[in-house]
Structures
1.
Amino acid sequence: MELAVELVGQGLIIGSGYALIAVGLTMIFGLMNLANFAHGEFYMLGAYFAYSAVSFLRLNYFLAVALAIAATMVLGFALDRLVFRRLRREPIMSATMATIGLSILLQYTAQMVWGAYPLSIKSPFPPEPLSLGPIVVPVNRLFIIAVTIFVIALFHWLLKSTRLGKAIRATFQNKESAALVGIEIERIYTTAFTIGAGMAAISGALLGSIFTLLPTMGGFATLKAFIVVIVGGMGSFVGAIVSGLMLGVAEALGAGFVSSAYKDGVGFIVVIVVLLFTPQGLFGGKS
Amino acid sequence: MGRAIALAAVAALLLAVPILFRDPYVLHIAIYAGINVMLVSGLNLLVGYMGLLSLGHGAFWGLGAYGSALLAVKLGISFWVGLPAGALLAALMSFLLGNLILRVRGHRFVIITIAFQEITRLVHYNWVELTNGQNGLSGVPSPVVAIPGLLEINFFAKENFYYLVLAFAALTVYVCYRLVGSHVGRALVAIRENESLAESVGVNTFRYSMIAFGTGAFFAGLAGSLYAHYSRYVSPDVFDFIHIVEMLIMILMGGRGTIAGPVVGAIIFTALPESLRFVGLSPAAQWFTLGLILVVGILYVPEGIVPRVARLLARRRGARPAAATENPA
């Protein structure tokens, strides 16, 4: 029983990372009908930027995370203007392959800059865990959960209560009608893309303090995020968050009770079953 | 007439490669190029002619490689049995998988094929008793033809293996060429251009997508077996995502939906990384270059090199573009 609680806790940490990446991915997918295979690279870059800010600029961890998010968002903005804007008109195959090319380009850029060896971001938190009654939680993990909740709440507020959010939701529902009422679709796309890149970067900078950094981590994040997006229902934010957490927990439980070797297989099997039997995903949404 | 002369010239050139280039390194690249031609010509049926993006083709070449290598290493079965066995294993798997997934289209199909390849990789990586896991299978024997007293050919020699691969690559291209020129090719293009219309005029879209998928898997299995017995080693690295990306670069940059395009693409993009290494680029820089070529290529040469060159040549001659009818829209 204690093991199960421990595993669920671990799963929620990883799952919150999946959720943050998947929210951005599903927003880009829903708005632009583009499967962005380079999305996980923003997660990877967020982690590496934070690493560099801590190790080379000698910044405080929290400042470093903020800087990493800002830097990734600037890069996301630039890539959207340079590459993604032109892919929106392309058929699925060309667009998908171009994003795969971009993902390789970014991954190996990272390898040339930071090397292929695992790195880690020095955690600013004391190693002693916090005791909350019977539950013992390491402080850094608590911090990750808290930030994730804050970011998701912020995103929710942005979507529901601001003019920008209203415009994003309108574009999400119907591009042509949104354009007709005067929403500048291209600006919405770029803004949404930049926000998505930032959310992936937050996830990378946070999880980078408890896991090791590798240039290949982005590719894996992309695959996991796609699983989450499909299982949750393409274009559903609630679905992305819930199924992100579920995938994290399922993997942790699978690793603990079944076989750690096949931990990553859990998601792949789930995604095939979901796609074949409930193609709309668990939380419906538009396809 | 001109076509026949050109074909004969290409054939003569290909047959002369081991005589023209004594360097074993050149032959080594030529052998890999031939294996890649087999992989991408088959995948092109699905990706180029039918317009369905599969990212799971590496699973079939891995199954062919492991199937044939396991038969040889564990049971001592000859390459000449293992080769068709590996290919049939890949084809059987594609049939089972195809029955599940070939009704799915678009982004969903892309993701399912990745998931399939990842599961296949995990199984080969973790089933250590059978596959030796991460360490891979070594000691896969080179093919040998021996008729006692008459002749003995050992394909350990690179020039011999080159001719073996050349024969199978030519067979693959020929089968694909015949298939594409038949009603199958026309059905695949009809599906690509407008699937509901094709269905409404009576094209059994599921059946034709299965033919494209299965043929590609069969030749990928053959290519995998040849690869295993050439390198005499196979590891779960054959399932790496990067290999399927290489294949798609060859198809898309060469010219999808044409017979010559993927062949030319396979030759160029097998030789290019080696050339980049030759001029001193690190492996990371080589991959960076390939990624860059893919992004820039899709934006500026979306139809691929062969159709683009054919169009430029046709325009220079003032004739109507010959390859235009073959291009995907």
Note: Residues 205-231 of chain B form the longest helix (27 residues).
2.
Amino acid sequence: MIMAPRVRKLVLTAHVASSVGWLGAVVAFLGLAVVGVTNQDAQTVRGAYLVMEPAAWLVLVPLAFASLLTGLIQSLGTTWGLFRHYWVVFKLLLNLMATIVLLTYMETFAVMAEVAADPSADLGMVRNASPGLHASLALLVLVVAVVLAVYKPRGMTRYGRRKQRVRALTM
Amino acid sequence: MADRPRYDYTEGDTAGGRDREATTGTPRWVKVFGIIALVVVLLFVILALTKGPGGRGHGPDLHGLDGGTRPASVSADLTASGVPSVATSANGGHG
């Protein structure tokens, strides 16, 4: 079903806001990760790992799902479709992959917070390079998604070409 | 003189059906992306497999946070409940 122009604009605004917001939140996490690995103050280091888990639940996860949901509505509600253009398919796969990795990584955030909260754990045990690596990779994935969304490179899937032929015949 | 934008944002979001897809076959960029995606997936599979049957997907085990590196109190708590909780230290919690 094709959305009315006003609804389409609204969903597009929500999709851009949530997707770019997700990207911004990942940059903030990258900053936290750098603090965790490099800062010399024990309280600050522990604080960085303690705040990651609740911040991820409150910011990253909702933004990831908002981006996924609005992207699905946006593609299904316009003539772009979900499986007609390669760039849309790739964006969907990138979004799904990033969301799944984020959700499975939540357990890691929880364990890192636990270690950081344990006074018996020394700082070397608290520090972990993993959030920085994951935030960097997430940033790369989300930037690629933005590039795909803006440039919309050519290329129709077999399904898309078939749909296009059918539409041309019926017009 | 600047070229006319290849893609107009307003138009593009409604005009998925515009007939700009005259070319057939798979574009080169799709093949490149496909190969990169395949390599990434293979890397994940290899990483998961090298963690052995006890590996838990993309969880803490994959990030060097197995029982051996956690403080004893945290490891014990995880073993007992399966789910980490916040108050785990042997002295009854954290300040």
Note: Residues 64 and 100 of chain A are 10 Å apart (CA to CA).
3.
Amino acid sequence: MSTGRAATRDRLELLQGTLDLLILRTLRVGPAHGHAIAKAIERGSEDVLQVEQGSLYPALHRLIKRGWITFDEGTSENNRRAKYYRLTAKGRKQLAVETSRWDQLAKAIARILRPAAQD
Amino acid sequence: MWKRRRALDGLDDDIRDHLEREIEEHVARGRTREEARRQALLAFGDPALVREDARAVWDWRWVTEVGQDLRYAVRSYARTPALAAVVIGTLALGIGANTAIFSVLDAVVLRPLPVREPDRLVELLSRYPGEPRMASFGWSAYEHYRDNNRVLSDLIAVGAGPIEVRPAGGAPEAVEGSYVTGNYFSALGLAPALGRLLDAQDDSDPAVAVLSWAYWQRRFGGDTGVPGRSIVVNDAPVTIVGVAPREFTGLLTGVSIEVWMPAQLLAQLGEGQRVGGPLLMGRLAPGVSRDRAQADLRVLDRWRVEELARSSGNSAWLEATLELESGRAGFSPVRDAFGSGLEALMLLVGVLLAIACINVAGLLLTRGMARRQEVAVRVALGAGRLRLLRQMLAESVLLAASGGVLGVLLAYVGAELLVDMLVSSRPLMRLPGPLEIPVEPDGRVLLFAVTIAVATGVLSGLAPACTAATTAPAVSLRGMGQIGERRSWRVLRNGLVVGQMALSVALLSATGLLVGHLARLQTSDLGFARDGRLLVRLDPSETGYSRQELGERYDTLLARLEGLPAIRSVTLSAVTPIQGGGAARFINVEGVEERPADRRYMSLNWVAPRYFETLGTPLVAGRDFQREDAHAQAPPVAIVNQALARRYFADRTPLGQRFTFDESDRVYEIVGVVGDAKYVDLRQPAPPTIYLNALQEGRGTFAEFSLHTRAAPMAALPAVRDAVRQVLGEDARVDTATTMADQIDATLVPERLTAWLSTAFGALGAGLAALGLYGQLAYAVARRAREIGLRTALGATRAGVTAMVLKSAGLLVGVGLVLGVPAAIVSTRLAAGILDGQPPNWAWPIAAAAVLMMTVALLATALPARGATRIDPATTLRAE
């Protein structure tokens, strides 16, 4: 984060797909509001993925735009307005695809990274 | 879109809710509310930024992210500056060279006159068999054509003559002027910018003048009261009637006419001031083709040639024919001199552009291949494919656009340099005034070249990225390790190298042809010496001597100069070789019958004794002229060259033979035979030539002195000036002084320009091809590093590894050369066709080009081959 905004953006770029996948995975359990999703991801990956909580929101909007998730307006327990996000049928299918792709990728990356010394 | 509005509507609430929950969590863990708030914001990031990013999801991403793409592209090229520089430079050269050459070609050859329907204009030319075309007619011929033809709607005549304008109270000023017929402006369809233009009335009442826009601005500050004002032209008052349209500068390309006056005025000038006959330009009548007009006018032309034959008593004139040429670009000595050279150069830069594009394609493809891994990883990580392609596009466009911008700059500079070189040949054109060639880099060609270059850059930069991005990442990543380059890509990249080799051979062959053409002209057997000769022309007009006195003084001067220690020998003559002028006559040789149709002009020069010795032309038989020939009783003598001897005497000796000139019964006896020497034009073979004794013919007043010097010719000039002053007085001026070498070179400016530029383009093309080959081999070696390492580990010798690289290079080069030969045959044919009179001797340029390319290819191979032998098996194998 110390290299300034451009670097931050690059990091987000690279993590974008991953973050999308994690959101979809979180919402499979049931609808949740933004904070709850952030907490769930953090709990699951704390030290590995340092996601800025704020970056969750552009990602959520992207997923809405693609039609993978949708939301309901609701009022939270302490009377604030908030959105509850949930998976759509399309999102559920996408999650399956992304998950299998992720598995392939993980293997493939492992193959590349091991002989990475040559670069 | 409702989704967008709904989603964004609650965004602020969402963020606030999120932060509140986070704060509450921290407070629950016992922090102060202040501290909790700080922590929450730290974990969240800048809410404003988040809002912006979320909004951007719904916006047109192009707008917001193009800048980002470009920044990334700049950074990515900053990592490989050499590649970027080569690509940008190559594109710039291709674009710049093409645009510059075409712009000049356009200005000199193609650009039509700014008049109504320039394509309907035709220039009238007359050709006598075996002679260059002439554009000069008599005024009576003009009137004859004008009054009797039925194929031209208008025929105009443009005469040249001195125009000296004296403004009220000012010093006289020489201006560029044309003497034109009254129908000039109406035939061209021009309307005045101010006042009126010349019309038929002015033919009978000619004391009027039309100014050019530029001259009107310069001399009269654009004063609209100018029509009706009087100026003094050639010492007579004339009335300015109007100003020509701004863009029109006359019919002579390269010369901006400033004042137009009725041709009638020319007739009033003294005999000595008239310069040749008028140039004729006609406008084809509606529905009449140029061929039909030429056929009709030729019939009409019989009158002129019969008249000529009758008046000269020489039926050979009947052989003259009339020719029509397109007049759309005006009369142009510049076009005649440079047109073919520029066309040849255009051919070369076209090939150069092809090589440049192929080279860029090769480089970017290689880079693209190397980046497929990166692309695959990014796709796998979920980066949008379109986004990635756009990123690649941004990189390619950035490179191509940089090349384009640099190319435009190069085009400007290049066109300017070219024009400077063209203008330096002004003496060759024998134009009355300065030569101006207005050149603007041509927008169409620029667009064409930039489009080609950018398309190349973008396509070749994008193609590998495209395939990588559309292949499932797992597939491409799996094969990515080392061997998995698709065959089709390798074939394509090898094909590009082969293409560059082939085109380079074609380019170099054409270059060789052009350079050879120049070399042949420069080293052609001139028949006289090139070096160590000083040529001095005197201007005795201010000395006040009579012809008689001048002849005696020149005799004294010759003797004085001969005595100078710096001078070996000295002579004078009517013209010096390749000076650009000469005389010619028909002769009648005693005992030789010639059919009228076979008669030809014999070139003629009047020379003083020691001319042949001084110029270095060998005397092969008989004797040189002598002073004694000038005695009153001495019979008229002549010396002929071998070409004339062959023509008339075949195997007989010419010595003692006698001949007369047409229109004279003075009989000359041939007393000597000299070697053939070029006369007016280096490009023509030495013509049959007759030399007469200038002293005997009373022509001892020709002021062209030729001196054979002992040291550098110019070093003798001060002594020559002194001698001239001592013999002829202080008022005698040396008009021009030059060396024979310079005089020859000045006539070769077009060929030299073509040869220099084609050499530069040829070298560039070959260099690019070498770079392409080098890049391809270096990439191949890098890709095969592991294989090579393994082979080395298994005992392959350095020689073996080198041989392996050489073999793959040899294959590429070999195929390239084989394909290059037919391409070279085509290119040299084209180049030879453009240079007229060029024998199609294309064998040696092609052979030389092939050898040169092989050498260059070997050099390009050396580095990668050395790199391959340096591969350390331990390192490469450990990386596995």
Note: The longest strand of chain A covers residues 69-75.
4.
Amino acid sequence: MMPGILEHLAGIGDPRVVVFGITGKQGQSTTRVMTGFGTKVLAGVTPGKGGQEVDGIPVFNSCSEAVAAFPAIDTAVFFVPAGAVLSATREAAAAGIRFMVHTADGVSTHDAALMREISITDGFRIVGPNTVGMLDTTGFLFGLIGGNASWARRNYLPGSVGIISRSGGLSQLLGAFHCRPHLPGPLPGGGYGELWGEKGPGVSAVICVGGDPVPGTTLLEAAEAFEADPRTKVIAGYGETGTMQENELAEAVANGRIRKPMVMFLGGKFTAAGVSQSHAGAMIRSEAETWDAKRKALEEAGVKVVDRPDAVFGSVASVLSSI
Amino acid sequence: MPALAEYRTRALLEREGVPLVPGSVLRGLPETTPAFPVFLKAQIPGATSRKKAGLVRRIDSAPDLAANLDELLSREGCECVLMTSGVDIERELYCAVVFDGGSSSDMPGGRVLFSESGGSGIESRAGSLVEMRFPLSKPPSKEEILKVLPSGGWSDGVAGILAGMVGTFLKYRLLVLEANPVAILRDGRALVVDCRAEFESRAVRKGEEELFGTGGVSSSDSTQIERTVEAINRDDPAGTAFFRQNRAARPAGAAAVATNLCGGGGKMLWEMATGGREDIFPLNESDTSGGLSAFKSYRFLRAVLSQEEADLLFFTGSGMAFQSQLHIAAAIWKALRESPRVVPFMVRFGGTDEDKARALFERVSPTLRAPVRTYPSEVFPNAMVDDIAGFLASAGKVEATRPEDSHRSSEPAFEIEVPPGRFHIDGALCAECHDRPCLASCPTKFLAWEEGSGPRPGGTGRCIGCLMCEAVCRLDGRAGLFIELGIPEVE
């Protein structure tokens, strides 16, 4: 089997998962979506609820207990409150988890920075916080993508587009619409119409890096994973104002670290500097973090930046037809 | 980013033992006359250029103190006045600790900043700034800071202040902590004369709220509807409901659009599509996300719809919501039924059960008091925006009509409390209902049926506030079930 994107993000070919907060409402329902999509969830963790089962998945009081019972576990998906995310990360790291997905919104920037710091020094990988998660069409899904498993299976089909995004909604949308038959949209040559027939280009994987100021995995790091992924022919994504993620992505394209073609839609053209945004990471703190500066940097590097979100698909189709 | 008033920043520094110029917080005349001169500083969170704005004053006499104190306390947003003693300053320095988000190649962490030119603007410090980066897990000690400071008789004292500032920065998870100036007195002591901090509301721990106050979000700055949404968020915190009204003037002839946009991406898409247009005036910014319940969506929509100038209500997700679009559709339908104000409505559902959500709206549209246009998820918000003018022209003028009565005239036989909701069940109507659609629609099996009376809490699950029972009761039952969801009253 072709390894999924996790091989290139965290050196994991066939992920085995523990779910933190599996007994909660969201943990329980989302675990069903994940397993229904094909994700191998071996255990759950909820302090004080060890010994219970959720849909046949055993629950443990701690991550170390779960890993002792299932040594193959290498990945953790967290449905825990924002205030508990840092301590849960430490617990999972101590138990030897190598890949973590944090869905919580509202994690303090200090905690997020500490999480990234620990992940770098200890050599594991985090996606999030404030992410809907990620999905790979080899058959695993971590987080909130898809709503229900059959919907996710229908809407995310194997193909050649790698999705990177700072928005949960747009991660899902950019991924699903590359798989939708007869998708309408603006045509690269002008006009509006069907972009492809029954079969869209499909996706290799979708990585939502999250909307916070300090992501565990940056847009660049996600793009580097797609650069190494042989299934991915083109990278498509959503960036926005705030942070330097798009700027360093542009630099990597300019200096040849990223060679695969890239199509981006950038949000925040009309975002005023210094104003708090609902995506905490979108607040502009310097001139380089503005929409204009990012667009210029990306275009000068050779990235195709489109003016409207539904223009991503036509551009991707056009790039693919020229490869 | 919320800013902390100086007196609050001082309180944080004081707890870490950082030496400060002597001062006291006044909300009225001090009991004892201070030794003059003193400085009065109005404490308005987020205020900048305080000297220019007359918010900082030197006072040399008791009558001056009384007059100036009264005047400063009466300034809008003034929480109190900080009175500090005059000190004999030999030189002024600049000290700060700021957050650094890092990059793909640099670890995030903090930065200690120091300059020998204090008390002035940042421009004058550009060439003389000493910087020391540190990981948050390994803050520098006083001795380590001392090694990077220029040597001087004051170095030890300043290193102590910076070490205390690092401790404060970490303890309260601040983003910016600035002491400017730090004064070196003629007797050699170093102390903080002025200071400020920026923090994240999300980083304030339980029990510390009093220390941080409103952080520059003065209640006098927010509108009544914004305060209503704040109140909704407070009593139903699950899921984000972000709302901010547009303070700009509406251009002549522009369509005023009230929005409920889903997700930060949805908000961005709307802003990208409308930002450069003169013909569309967004009445508010919005972002609902994080799996908020239909109960909360309904209350949020009622707040959005209460904007009197609205010509149109615009609802769209950014993409593929994981939360049930059918539940959201039930919330929107209820808001459109019960809102006193009604306007034409454009909606795009996207995600789980989007087809069912659209089908619900197509079914109920003829019963609504204003025209509705629904879009499939493949149509992006920018394409919907292009449709606004045409839709409003075809909708014509919407006549004001009475909203549906929320309370029926007959006394409800039974009530179920599910905060913030209250179910009213009209037993007489329910007794005639044979299909009992409310039971089948309940995704958690919260409801059970009591023969001759109707639905009762007694099922196996708990209510998640999805509003499906009420929606199907109206569509396929006897309309005996009504859920009352109060909108908080704010001043």
Note: Chain B touches chain A through 59 residues (CB under 8 Å).
